[in-house]
Predict the structure of ribonuclease H.
Amino acid sequence: MDPADLSNQLARIAARQEEQDHRMDQFALALQTLLNRSSGGTTSPPDPVVPIVSSASPERNRLSMKAPLRYDGTPSLCRGFLTQLEILFENNPGSCMSDKAKVGYLINHLTEKALLWATPLWENKKPIIYDYEGFTSELKRTFDPSRRATNAGRSLFHIKQGNRRVSDYAIDFKTLTSEVLWPNDVLTLAFTEGLNETFMFELAPLKLPETLDHLIDFCIAMDDQIRERRHPRDRPRRLLPPLPPSSRNTGTPGAQENVKTDIPIAEPMQIGKTGISEAERAHRREKGLCFYCAGADHFRLQCPQRPRGGRGESGRSNQRPANTQVIGSLYASFVNNEKKKSRILVPISLTWDRVHLKTEAFLDSGASGNFMDKHFAAKCLIPLVLKERPLMVEAIDGNPLSCPHITHDTIFVCMETGVLHHEKICFQIIESPSCPVVLGFPWLVKHNPVIDWVQRDIKNWSPHCQSNCLGKVDLIGSLNVATAPPLSTEVPDHYLDLKEVFSKSRTEVLPPHRPYDCAINLLPGTMPPRGHVYPLSQKENNIMEEYIRENLDRGFIRRSSSPAGAGFFFVSKKEGDLRPCIDYRGLNRITIRNAYPIPLITELFDRLKGANVYTKLDLRGAYNLVRIKEGHEWMTAFNTRSGHYEYLVMPFGLCNAPAIFQDLINDTLREFLQVFVIVYLDDILIYSPDIVTHHVHVRQVLKKLLEAGLYCKLEKCLFDIRTVHFLGYIITPEGFQMDPKKLTAILDWPLPQGLKAIQRFLGFTNYY
């Protein structure tokens, strides 16, 4: 037989077989319907326990259902296929009485990969074909192994309303909630977190429903009312303002009042209405192209193809004075408060002549330079220098600003953008009252930051910045104090039998749970916020990756699917190293404070009278020796570019960490406190009148620390000394005095600018 004829014949046989299968399915359903009707033909006497349904109800209530489409093994279709089968079986309880019959029916509706998987199970009479639940579980495990709950949980805390209606946002949100088993409070918080800022502003004065369903209904109704209020059907369209007398069309009196337009007032980061589409406008903005001709070497104002002397230019000469220069297009309309939310504002810190201040800079791709408001510069006493020749600055439409000439620049100042980005920069002085600092197109081209336009934030920096601008954080108020001479790294002979207390490896394993576990108790109705990922230099990124690997190996952290997530960055330690820090400020604001007292320094030193010998101990990995309370780990979650993690040990940065650790160390050494030991967090000072007694005291302390699972950092410990630097003081048998290096730090402190800087300075000076 010809192979082609054989192939056609087999195809016809397969088609007939499939048609017969379909007819058999229909026949089985029809037979079941007849059986149900016949069984309900006579009415039985009422049973006292189970009521009998009338003969008409099955026929009236039972639905006629088609068999599900055949399943080919596509993961996304697996759940729907099994759900359709469940519904079919539930509505036709007599059609498949045994589990094997159900499995057979299911296999009869498989094709391709799914059928290849199931065929050997049926042929070999595997036990699983006699267990319908087990068979469907194995089918899902094979073809739909996705972690739906985890993925849905992550999506719930990233989904945003944006510019959509609340009803559209709610549909997506409810779809995700069906995959998780979160409590109502968490779901309502997640829903409100995803609403846009404008809508949340409308809700702020209102009392919101407590349940998710009622909250969604309430928000949808509010959204409809707000949209109706903003866009009523009978709303008149805005008219253009009258033209000035020199430009008005005198030939058609009154014609101007009938011209309608929707052109908005020019404002930052927004090009006026032109003949190009929004998509093309966005493309040209992103590429730095001219908005008139799409050229790459000029702005719209200098475009050679742009008509001159047209609308808006009548009566104005195109000739520039010889001593001026046009520097580009800076938006002049900074007065529309309604649109301020659409700006990209980034936090910056400016430092010059030991003066430090913080403000915000407006990123303006339409500005051809970096500008500062003259009133802001005068208020902050920023030194200015006179330009060799004045420059002219114009708005986007070519019209001059109220003060069109730039005559002064600032001196070069150090600008820190965000947390880690440093550079030297000078600003040109203009009049811009609502935007004190403007970073224009040249700055954006030079640094080429990655901007999240939805969150209105800088997410990352260019390779140029990674190499030249990103470095260690130099926090204002940090002290550059020289460290003590190199310390001994050998255990003294008197304590060799206790050398285990100086073990480094013992601190690199997960400690046990204890009564001092760090609990994170939140204020009622609050939820840990989500932070953003801080940009890191290449060096910091390498250190961060190593930190993550080490702590995963030690068991100090684990991968997380928590809805919370704080930022991760580094600060400089006085030894020159980098200390990893988690930005728990948002979590700390909603944490109930632990009231355990921290010792007063002056009160501690009152106990030192009569002491002649000192030993200073420094605990290794102090906070990491305390576990997070079981069930509270998810609140410590933090974000990095390599993943989402949470702590199992107490990290630095939690507001209650000092109190919890002070409680632990005080209980450990309680019998020695104020007798021959003073403790301030992880710093321990042992004092004695003579060397013999001192050795006994030190041994007692080391034994207690070892029993409590606390270990010392040998390279930072000092033994049997008569002069010791402790908590910013120099202590000797004759008394104690302030460390001269700390005094120098106070004398050299930069002039504080702003409330926070003043508080930081006063806090440091009041310490002494």
